[in-house]
Amino acid sequence: MTKTIATFVLIFSFLSLVGHASNPSPGVVSALKLDPAFGKIIGECLPAPGKRHVWLFKQWHLAPTVNTHDLAKAIELPQQENQRAIYRQLDRWIKDKQLTMVIGEGCSGEVLESTPMVFNGWGAPELRKNAMLPLYDDITTHIPMKLEVKYGSHVLTLCGDDDSLVRETSLAFSDARGSAGFLGRLVQHKKDPVKSKLYLDGVMEAFKLPPATTVDDAIEFLKADLRKTIEKIRKLLDKRNRKVIETLKKKETPEAAIVFGGLHAGGIKALLEEAGVNCTVVEPTGYPGGSGGDEEGLLTRLEQILK
Predict the structure, then answer these.
(1) What is the count of structural domains for the chain?
(2) Interatomic CA distance for residues 120 and 134, integer angstroms
(3) What value does the CA radius of gyration of the chain take, rounded to a whole number of Å?
(4) Residue 298's domain spans which residues?
(5) In contact, 161 and 107? CB cutoff 8 Å
(6) Which of 39, 46, 111, 307 has the most beta carbons within 10 angstroms of its beta carbon?
(7) Residue 139 confidence (pLDDT)
(8) Three-state SS annotation for 272-304
(9) In what order do the strands lie in the sheet with 101-104?
(10) Residue 262 domain-assigned?
């Protein structure tokens, strides 16, 4: 009997150790609740024993130079539903004193009301005039700047980006669009000598190709050029994502929110896991998803062209 008990204890201890080894300590579970009216949870970081949690919002934003001062037209923008949903959720958490740190893209450094930032035609002085009005939610501009103007010292708003890398990324996407456009036309009209020559001449002029270049030569050149540009875009995105993590580490808060283009979500999530930070990934209401109209969808389509 004693031997049987001892054997049972030994087996139980072994199973307990195995079970403990296969189930790592759970990570920080956020006390914040996402309102389903504002989005849905589509992923989480691998559980980490860290003391902080990050909400990663996939945003679909306008180019900073697009002016949204005419609110009657701005309300019709396809990006506005996504931008409004993110703003309203963060606004609620900050108002309830549950969130004190927000990191955005498109700039670097701390976002202050005195900072001469202008996004979509809006600077801090213009936002201040509307901050207490119901229409403030509908203003489509830089979300951290809107929150900074409304809450001031009650929230730390930071830009987790790099201005030069943002410009390089924009130029790389422009180059990729150009190569993809020429490539698509040449493939489409390859059997039409008249039309294909028009596009071939354009490629030869744009890329300084030799006079003897054929349509097939141009197609292969454009594919190689597009692959090279996509690789450059991927490297630039990784550099920008690492800037986000550097920014996050500047201030320890139990909860933080990162608002970045959906194209960055996968890379930022992986880096958060690497840094031992717990996270929840949110696809806000109005986000196009899949092969939608944002940069995430554009990069997917560019890569599909090469298959």
Answers:
(1) 1
(2) 19
(3) 25
(4) 39-167+229-305
(5) yes
(6) 111
(7) 93
(8) HHHCCCEEEEEEECCCCCCCCCCHHHHHHHHHH
(9) 39-44, 278-284, 53-59, 255-261, 101-104, 156-160, 108-110
(10) yes
Q: Which residues face 283 on adjacent strands? A: 40
Per-residue tokens: 188:
């489409």
Q: What confidence tier does 142 reach under pLDDT thresholds 50, 70, 90?
A: very high
pLDDT for residue 237 is more than 90? yes
* Average pLDDT, integer, range 175-200: 92
Pick the residue with more confidence: 11 or 25? 25
For the purposes of burial, counting CB atoms within 10 Å of the CB of 47, is it exposed (0-12), middle (13-18) or buried (19 or more)? middle
**Residue in 91, 88, 98 with CA at minimum distance from that of residue 33:** 98
Element (H, E) at 266: helix 265-274
Please calculate the CA angle 281-296-184 and round it to the nearest 5 degrees. 165
Written as six digits, the tokens of 157 are: 């708003």
Indicate the residue type of 101. M
Query: Which segments of 163-245 are extended strands (E)?
Result: none
For residue 3, being part of any structural domain is answered with no
Identify residue 194 by its one-letter amino acid code: V
Token pair belonging to 83: 């931008």
The string over 137-146, giving b where at least 16 C-beta atoms fall within 10 Å of a residue's C-beta and e elsewhere, is: ebbbbbbbbb
Residue 17: band (very low, low, confident or very high) from pLDDT cuts 50, 70, 90: very low
Convert the pLDDT of each residue in 32-76 to its tens digit.
999 999 999 999 998 878 779 999 999 998 888 899 987 767 677
Please state the pTM of the whole predicted model. Answer: 0.84
DSSP per-residue string spanning 64-82? TTS----HHHHTT-TTHHH
Is 53 a domain residue? yes
Beta strands in 46-169 (DSSP E): 53-59, 101-104, 108-110, 156-160
| Burial environment of residue 63 by CB neighbours within 10 A (0 to 12, 13 to 18, 19 or more) | exposed
CB atoms within 10 A of CB 286: 19
